[in-house]
Amino acid sequence: MIKTYEKQPSPVWERKLVLLLGFLLAATLLLFAFWAVTLFLGWAEADDCLDSGGSYDYEQRRCEPDGVAPSRT
């Protein structure tokens, strides 16, 4: 005859730990997504400027449409 076992309920601390780890993972993924979107938008801004024939000033984060970078005097 096959012996069956009754499943024991998880302790409360294990359930709380799983919830905490799930929350930390979700928060980390959300922060990573925000960072990635911000980085992508910066790249897209510079790419649009360069595609239009301009010069992008990465320090000032602006596009010089005539293709001439500002002088550094």
> What best-fitting shape do the alpha-carbon axes yield?
rod-shaped
SSE order:
HEE
* Main sheet summary: 2 strands, antiparallel
Query: With helices defined by DSSP (H or I, 4 residues minimum), what is the helix count?
Result: 1
Unreliable spans: none
What is Rg?
27 Å
Helix content: 40-55%
Mean pLDDT: 89
Strand content: 5-15%
Beta strands, count:
2
- What is the terminal-to-terminal distance? 91 Å
Q: Report the structural category.
A: mainly alpha
Strand order of the largest sheet: 1-2
Q: Can you walk me through this structure?
A:
With 73 residues, the chain is mainly alpha-helical. It has a domain of 51 residues. Helix content is 55%, strand content 8%. The protein contains one helix and two strands, in the order H-E-E. Strands 1-2 form a two-stranded antiparallel sheet. Strand 1 and strand 2 form a beta hairpin. The N and C termini lie far apart (91 Å). The mean pLDDT is 89.
Keywords:
73 residues; mainly alpha; two-stranded antiparallel sheet; 1 helix; 2 strands
Topology:
Blueprint: H1 12-51, E1 55-57, E2 62-64
Antiparallel strand pairs: 1-2
